[in-house]
Write a structure and sequence with these properties.
Order of helices and strands: HHHHHHHEHHEHHHHHHHHHHHH
Number of helices: 21
Mean pLDDT: 79
Helix content: 55-70%
Distance between the termini: 31 Å
Largest sheet: 2 strands, parallel
Structural class: mainly alpha
Shape: globular
Radius of gyration: 24 Å
Strand content: under 5%
Low-confidence stretches: 1-8, 93-161
C-alpha cells in the first residue's frame, strides 16, 4: 500500500554538500563502514552501504531516521542536523488525508524510517499472484490517519489534537496471530526472500494497533504477544534472506516487547532465534549467551521440546568455538529432553521442530567441528525424516549434505547432492540456502574433470543466471 502524497510534487533533491565534504577522500563503501562501526559503538544497528551514502549525498534522503541521526551525532557531536546538510524532520513529514489509507507507523524505540525510506519500502511488492496481503487481514485500511508518520518526541504546542483512537478487540488480535501462522506456513513452503517485505508491512500494522488503539488488559497482553511473534517472524525472514543486521534489529525489538509484556514464552523464542542468528553470523560467544539466556527464560514453562531446541542452540555455539566435549554434553541434553515427548505447553511456533530438525541441527554441529562422517550421517537422516511439504528444509538439508560430503573429500557425492538441491531451487527463495550452494560450487570449480561435478556446476550456473 503506497503512501498518499499531499501538497503537490516533491521538490527536486538538493545535493548534500556537507556530508560529501565529511566523506573526504573515503570511498562511499569505506564511509559506510565508518558509519556502521560508529553505530556499533553506541549500540545502534544500521544497514549503511555505499548506496545509502549515495542517496544521502544526492539529497534523496532529506532527513535521516532516528537511528542514523544518533550515529551521525555520535560521529560529529558538535554539528546539528542542519549543519550536516539535512532538512528539519518536520519539513519532510507528510500526512495523508483522513479519507485515504495510511502508512503504518514503526514500533516504539525502533529505528524510524524517513518518509523517503518508507516510500521505497512500500513500493516493493510481495509475490505476483501471491496470497492476499496480510496487511489487509490486519485491517490496515482502517488505521487512523495519525499512523501516516511518526510523531515527534516533543510535539509543538500548536500540534493538532489526535484523532479518535480505534477500538481493538478479539478480531484484530486474531488477525495478528493468523498473520504469524500464515508467514510460517509460507516460509516452510517457499523460503523467506519473497515474504520479507509483506511481513514487514504486517508488523508495522500490528504496532499501529498496539500503539494507537484502545483495548482492555487481556487484549493488550495478546496484542503484545502477537506483535512480538510477528517481529520474530520478520527477523527470521531477514535472517534467511541474508539480511543479518536487519534480523538482529527485529529480534532486539521483539525482546523489548517481551520484557515490557513480562512474557517469558516470547523471551525464550527471541533468544532461540538470536542464538541461531549469532551462530550463522560467526559470533559463537553471543550464540552461547543467547541460548543460555533462553534456557533460563524457558525454565518452568513446561516445555521439554523448547528446552531441547535451546540446548541445540547452545551446542551450535560450542561447536563453532571448537569445544567438542561441551558440544556433546549440550547435544546429549537436547536429545534427552526431546525424548520426553510433546507436551500441551509446547509453543505453537515449534511445529517445525521434529526429528528431522534435530538431526539437521546436529549435522551442522559436527560439520563445524570437522567431524564429516558424523555430519553426513545426520544430514542424511534429516533428509529421510523430513516431511515432503517442508520444501525449504528439504533443500536446506540437501545443501548441508553436499557441503558435508565435500568436507569428507567425496567430490562426486557432493556434486550429486548439490544438483539435487539445485533442482528444487525454483520452488524455494532463500538467500541463505543459495549462499550455501554457492560456496559448495566455488570449492568444486577446480574439479570439473569429475563428471558429476561438471553436471552440478552446469545446473547451478544456469539456475544462478
Amino acid at each position: 500500500m503506497a503512501a498518499t502524497r499531499t501538497g503537490g510534487p516533491r521538490p527536486a533533491p538538493v545535493p548534500n554538500q556537507a556530508m560529501r565534504e565529511l566523506r573526504g577522500t573515503l570511498s562511499p563503501g569505506e564511509f559506510a563502514t565508518l558509519v556502521r562501526r560508529a553505530a556499533r559503538e553506541i549500540g545502534e544497528h544500521v544497514s549503511c552501504d555505499a548506496r545509502y551514502v549515495g542517496r544521502v549525498e544526492s539529497g534523496e534522503i532529506r532527513c535521516p531516521n532516528y537511528a542514523y541521526e544518533r550515529v551521525f551525532r555520535h560521529l560529529w557531536p558538535e554539528k546539528s542536523l542542519a549543519e550536516l546538510g539535512f532538512a528539519p524532520r518536520t519539513a519532510v513529514r507528510r500526512r495523508a488525508p483522513a479519507t485515504e489509507p495510511s502508512v503504518p507507523a514503526h514500533p516504539p524505540d525502533a529505528p524510524l524510517r524517513s518518509d523517503e525510506e518508507n516510500d521505497d519500502v512500500l513500493r516493493r511488492t510481495f509475490l505476483n499472484g501471491g496470497p492476499t496481503a496480510l496487511a489487509a487481514v490486519l485491517g490496515l485500511d482502517q488505521a487512523p490517519p495519525s499512523a501516516a508518520a511518526p510523531l515527534p518526541a516533543a510535539p509543538p504546542p500548536a500540534a493538532p489534537p489526535r484523532p479518535e483512537r480505534r477500538r481493538v478487540g478479539a478480531a484484530e488480535v486474531e488477525g495478528v496471530e493468523q498473520a504469524v501462522r500464515d508467514i510460517r506456513l509460507l516460509d516452510d513452503a517457499h523460503g523467506a526472500d519473497a515474504l520479507f517485505e509483506l511481513a514487514g508491512q504486517s508488523l508495522r500494522s500490528a504496532y499501529v494497533l498496539l500503539n494507537d488503539g484502545e483495548y482492555n488488559a487481556a487484549t493488550e497482553r495478546r496484542l503484545q504477544g502477537g506483535a512480538g511473534e510477528l517481529a520474530i517472524s520478520v527477523g527470521w525472514l531477514a535472517h534467511d534472506s541474508n539480511r543479518l543486521t536487519d534480523a538482529r534489529s527485529f529480534y532486539s525489538e521483539a525482546l523489548a516487547t517481551a520484557r515490557m509484556a513480562r512474557d517469558p514464552h516470547l523471551e525464550a523464542h527471541v533468544f532461540s532465534n538470536s542464538a541461531f542468528l549469532a551462530r550463522d553470523a560467526g559470533r559463537p560467544r553471543e550464540a552461547l549467551r543467547a541460548a543460555q539466556a533462553g534456557q533460563a527464560a524457558a525454565d518452568g514453562l513446561g516445555s521439554d521440546r523448547l528446552l531441547s531446541l535451546l540446548a541445540l542452540r547452545e551446542a551450535g555455539g560450542w561447536a563453532l568455538l571448537g569445544d567438542r566435549s561441551a558440544c556433546e554434553r549440550a547435544l546429549a541434553r537436547a536429545y534427552a529432553l526431546f525424548d520426553r515427548g510433546e507436551r500441551p505447553d509446547d509453543p505453537e511456533w515449534m511445529s517445525f521442530f521434529g526429528e528431522a530438525e534435530l538431526a539437521g541441527q546436529e549435522a551442522q554441529c559436527w560439520s563445524a567441528l570437522g567431524e564429516w562422517d558424523r555430519a553426513v550421517d545426520r544430514a542424511e537422516r534429516a533428509i529421510g525424516l523430513q516431511e515432503p511439504h517442508f520444501v525449504r528444509n528439504r533443500v536446506l538439508y540437501t545443501a548441508e549434505l553436499a557441503h558435508d560430503r565435500l568436507g569428507r573429500g567425496d567430490l562426486a557425492g557432493a556434486a550429486e547432492h548439490g544438483a539435487a538441491a539445485v533442482a528444487l531451487l525454483d520452488r524455494v527463495r532463500s538467500a541463505r540456502i543459495r549462499g550455501m550452494l554457492a560456496r559448495t560450487a566455488d570449492r568444486l570449480r577446480g574439479h570439473v574433470a569429475v563428471p558429476e561435478v561438471r553436471n552440478f556446476l552446469d545446473g547451478y550456473d544456469a539456475a544462478a543466471a
